[in-house]
Amino acid sequence: MKSIVISPKNDSELTFVSTLLKKLSIPTKVLSDEEIEDLGLSILMREADRKKKVSRETIMRKLKS
Fold first, then answer.
1. What Rg, from alpha-carbon coordinates, does the chain have?
2. pTM of the predicted model over 0.85
3. Are 21 and 28 in contact (CB under 8 A)?
4. Up-side HSE of residue 45: CA atoms within 13 Å toward CB?
5. What digits encode the pLDDT tens for the residues 6-49?
6. Lesser CB count within 10 Å: N end or C end of the chain?
């Protein structure tokens, strides 16, 4: 199944689009800003190169800066 992400400009536009999709019997899900960030992070994690190794020292230096 494929999905479409729509980002309305304001609450009235969100209400309009939601109502329209409901009348067309298309299921919808409204995502919070936190859920959108989580989705983006999961996409980045899936695309990350897991073959390269980074030393513990390198990670600790990055965390300290």
1. 19
2. no
3. yes
4. 6
5. 999 999 999 999 999 999 999 999 999 999 999 999 999 998 87
6. N
Query: What b/e sequence results for 11-25 when a residue is b if at least 16 CB atoms lie within 10 Å of its CB, and e otherwise?
Result: eeeeeeeeeeeeeee
Contact 38, 32 (CB under 8 A): no
The number of beta carbons lying within 10 Å of the beta carbon of residue 50 is: 7
Tokens describing residue 40: 């983006």
